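Let us work through a complete example step by step.
Step 1: write down the sequence.
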Amino acid sequence: MTKKSFLANPSNKQAFINLLAEQMTKADKAVEHAKGDADYKICMSACLHAKEKPTAVVAEDSDVFQLLTHHANIADKDFIMVTSKQTVCVTTLAKKLDPLLSGALLFLHAFSGCDTTSRPYGIGKVSVLKKYAELERCSSIFMSPSSSKAEIERAGEDALLIIYGCTTSLSLDSARVDKFQQKVGTATQYVSPEKLPPTSDAAIFHSHRAYHQVQAWCGNDLPAEEWGWTTSPSGLYPVKMSQPSAPDRLLKIMR
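Step 2: predict the structure and record it as tokens.
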């Protein structure tokens, strides 16, 4: 079978991890199993080693890169990340980055889409990073372990309004109407709904999942079921919205 099919089976995947760990231990290599977020475990282990000696993290995952950049200490010894295409000195990058951007990286990465969170349609990572100063207040709420759900939901909606360039709108729902009217007034063809900002309802669950991921990257484990996820037989499944996609009277005539 293909590698993808083989690793899609959780039992196969765990057995393969156990086999690798066993062989590496026999070769006198230190092995640690991550019970939670593996990316966070890799990052914190690397940061611990970097305090004492030159350290290289070999990975292709952008999540690992963001975590290393955020958590790296500028006093660390030579600390690098190696990918198949390039080698980056994390220590040098941490020294040169604006502290405001460095402190907001985890929020910006999770909120604009990562392994466990959705990516807002048509919004690129670079465009979000460029708005880090405008998103400072929202970032501070998502980075705080003591923020309430109400604060997170409001900050998440404000962040999406900034990201979509709808700062004059009071809510995402009103921003959707404004954007739709603008596009219909100038479009020569069908206006795709996905090009509009998300609804306020959908934004709540996106914000919950982003906060859950940011806190996990900060070492604060929260119950996923309380933060935008529901349990299914195959594992966790994201809650997309609590309201119907359209009024009942409209859904009855649509085919």
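Step 3: interpret the result. Residues 33-97 form one domain.
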